[in-house]
Design goal:
Blueprint: H1 6-10, E1 15-17, H2 33-63, H3 68-96, H4 99-104, H5 107-121, H6 126-153, H7 157-188, H8 191-211, H9 228-234, H10 237-253, H11 258-267, H12 272-299, H13 303-320, H14 327-355, H15 361-389, H16 394-414, H17 416-423, E2 425-427
Antiparallel strand pairs: 1-2
Helix pairs in contact: 2-7, 2-8, 2-11, 3-6, 3-15, 5-6, 5-8, 6-15, 7-12, 7-14, 10-15, 10-16, 11-15, 12-14, 13-14, 13-16, 14-15
């Protein structure tokens, strides 16, 4: 076997010239059927497990009477755990393939969700709750790089954004239904949300086992040597800057999640139903608007430009929350934020897997998530701490978040020209080992 250097497989002799501004095109028909299988499992997961992420902060605060800062610390720690697991899982999926991780990693999650159900139904076992919840974080993190890398495995560069968009739409179709069910279940007991999560996890495992065919066979690709991954991504200046801006983005995007949940239910004392409705609205709007936005983003502009515009919409949505938090304000917030999400979210994995060598896709996803998780960690703790400090004048809190998000938006736009140079050549004939 002939070993090759990092430079050889990152920059082989054969290239294809691509549209420098935007390498992606709109395509739905003709996508590999494994895209649709993964998308169907994302729908099932989001339908049954999406509510568990939304309502977890309330379990800590309402059921176990934890403080804002302590809750933020638990949530932030979960983000770091998730990132470190994703880093090593990304490397692992490039070594052993996707299918075994997709299927077998989820089996322990069923037990963890059942233990969470028990620890909420009988609220005397906080350590059991915390460890079981962290267990679900670990399990989900093991699977995530394999899911994202599998999409890249079965799509060309030009079709990649479309592939991720289809999967995202199906996941959000589940989110459009799941939070409403979660809000209904919450009135009867928060524990029932996690019982449903256990049930749908069983369905997901069965579907992946019987329907998903392996998308990546490591033996058919170049074997990585120790240090290859580090040399590859550290020499990519654009990828490093993309990570740095992603860390800042993570700080502010975290405020849309756990902080928004606590703000709505605990600070403003709004009903669970409001929270369920606005998250259901988020899922419905993604389903309705993502394809039109995909057409728009593949016809003109630069992915960095669209990421910048999307982040501006997030900034506007946070600004909306400076108004009195009546139901219509929450609806306006989520509507504007979802427009930003439609521009921002689909491009992330598309860009990462386009930059990555073919045999490092999972690893690059893990690297990006590892570093950007520090933004999510800081955002969870700082966000809930500042919300605690500013809870009497919450409008000031959301104003500061909006201003910070605007700075991130400008940073993405400034990266546009560098992205154009970096993406101007795309590998079509990866180096293979010679016998």
């Amino acid at each position: 076997m002939k070993w090759v250097t990092v430079e050889e497989y990152r920059w082989p002799q054969k290239y294809r010239k691509v549209k420098a501004e935007n390498p992606y095109k709109f395509k739905i028909r003709g996508l590999d059927k494994r895209i649709w299988i993964l998308s169907a499992t994302r729908f099932i997961r989001a339908f049954g497990r999406g509510s568990s992420f939304i309502f977890v902060p309330l379990v800590f605060i309402v059921v176990y009477h934890m403080g804002f800062v302590v809750t933020g610390l638990f949530l932030g720690t979960a983000t770091l755990i998730m990132a470190f697991i994703q880093y090593f899982s990304g490397i692992l999926t490039d070594k052993i393939g996707r299918r075994s991780i997709l299927v077998y990693s989820q089996i322990p999650a069923v037990l963890f969700y059942l233990l969470i159900f028990y620890s909420i139904a009988f609220p005397h076992y906080f350590l059991l709750l915390l460890l079981s919840w962290y267990g679900t974080i670990v399990i989900n993190s093991i699977q995530y790089p394999a899911v994202q890398a599998a999409v890249a495995d079965v799509t060309s560069v030009s079709d990649r954004l479309s592939g991720y968009t289809v999967m995202r739409i199906m996941a959000n179709l589940g989110i459009a239904i799941g939070p409403l069910m979660g809000a209904y279940l919450a009135y009867h007991g928060l524990q029932y949300i996690f019982l449903v999560s256990a049930a749908v996890t069983v369905v997901e495992i069965i579907m992946l086992y019987y329907l998903f065919r392996e998308s990546y066979v490591p033996a058919e690709h170049i074997s990585l040597k120790k240090g290859d991954l580090g040399r590859a991504y550290r020499s990519d200046r654009f990828f490093i800057l993309f990570i740095i801006v992603g860390i800042a983005l993570g700080i502010f995007m975290r405020q849309r999640g756990s902080t928004f949940t606590v703000y709505t239910i605990v600070v403003e004392h709004l009903p669970y139903l409001y929270l369920g409705i606005v998250w259901a609205l988020n899922g419905a709007l993604v389903v309705a608007l993502q394809f039109p936005f995909l057409r728009l983003m593949t016809r003109s502009g630069n992915p960095m430009m669209w990421r910048g515009i999307g982040t501006v919409f997030y900034a506007i949505s946070f600004l909306i929350l400076t108004s009195s938090p009546v139901f219509l304000i929450l609806v306006a917030f989520m509507t504007v934020a979802t427009v930003g999400e439609d521009m921002l979210s689909p491009t992330t994995q598309s860009i990462i897997t386009t930059l990555a060598p073919e045999n490092m896709r999972g690893s690059y996803i893990g690297v990006y998530n590892l570093y950007t998780s520090f933004g999510g960690f800081a955002g969870a703790i700082i966000g809930l701490y500042l919300l605690f400090v500013f809870q009497k004048v919450a409008s000031a809190y959301w104003l500061y978040i909006s201003l910070g998000t605007t700075i991130v938006a400008v940073s993405y736009v400034l990266l546009g020209r560098m992205f154009t140079r970096r993406i101007s050549r795309v590998v079509i004939s990866p180096v293979t080992s010679a016998k």
